[in-house]
Amino acid sequence: MYSTLAAALALATALTGPLASIVGSDPVSCHRGASTAPASVTIDLERSAPDWGGYCERFSQWTMTDTADGLVLEYGGGEPYSNVHFYRNVSLPSGARNVVFSFDVLVPSTTYNNVGAPSTIQALEFTVSRWESGRRHEWAIQWVNVGASQPGYRIWNPELGWVDSGVTGILAPGWHRIELVGQVTSGGARLRSFSVDGSSSRINLTVPAVDAPGVADIGAVAVQLDGNFEGAPYAVTVRDVDLSTR
């Protein structure tokens, strides 16, 4: 996850460019913001690549391309263990305290935990954030493929990093439906549950909100692609990306 993502968001409205396919390859910042203002709509958020931005840790190539099947998010390879955080900014109603982030994701073929051959996918991360009054609440899960005893899911805690959820499982090649259900509480950001292909895991874990001075009130959904020790390229496709609040 990114402590510097707030700065990236602040830059997003200033960065523009042409766009049915967006390319990010700046070796200095590896960042390109959306070319449009934050959306007021919160359904079918994948429909236009220019509405999305990309940001990476360690240098990597990346592209976003609109297709008939959905929005293709490609990690084009780069330095070992580099990654790309693809995000879409949205305007959220003031005072909303409940969020549901749902989407379909097309996962490519990979080995699991480097068994038999190096696993192309190190990890995939799915996150929704809300900035309000200089504070950031974030609900995020990570499907970790390499590094744990077996593939499974972790929960983001801004103080502790990724925390094991106790939920194991693989994301086999093909389409998967994922949903995160979160809530703003007095203690921070509570991840109530997440589900994969209709199988729900109740979490009810609250993690602290963090200070985000200088960031306007805004929301964002994101998908992050983590590269392996070789920086091998791969891509996922997302469709039916929806965010509901109340």
What does this structure look like?
Strands 2, 3, 6, 8, 9, 10, 11, 15 and 16 form a nine-stranded antiparallel sheet that branches. Strands 1-4-5-17-7-12-13-14 form an eight-stranded antiparallel sheet, with no helix packed on it. The two termini are 26 Å apart. A hairpin with a 2-residue loop joins strand 12 and strand 13 (188-196). It is mainly beta and 246 residues long. The chain has one helix and 17 strands. The radius of gyration is 17 Å and the shape is globular.
What topology emerges from the helices and strands here?
Elements lengths: L4 H8 L8 E4 L6 E2 L19 E6 L2 E8 L2 E9 L4 E8 L7 E10 L15 E10 L2 E10 L7 E6 L3 E8 L5 E12 L2 E9 L2 E9 L2 E2 L6 E9 L7 E12 L1
Antiparallel strand pairs: 1-4, 2-3, 3-6, 4-5, 5-17, 6-16, 7-12, 7-17, 8-9, 8-16, 9-10, 9-15, 10-11, 12-13, 13-14
List keywords for this structure.
about 55% strand; 9-stranded antiparallel β-sheet; disordered N terminus; mainly beta; about 250 residues; 17 strands
Short recap of the structure:
The chain has 246 residues and is mostly beta strands.
Class derived from helix and strand content: mainly beta
Please identify the oligomeric state. Answer: single chain
What is the number of helices? 1
Using the CA coordinates, give the radius of gyration: 17 Å
Order of helices and strands: HEEEEEEEEEEEEEEEEE
Main sheet: strands, sense, barrel: 9 strands, antiparallel
Mean pLDDT: 89
Helix content: under 10%
Q: Pick out the low-confidence regions.
A: 2-20
What overall form do the CA principal axes indicate?
globular
Number of strand elements: 17
Distance between the termini: 26 Å
**Estimated share of beta-strand residues:** over 45%
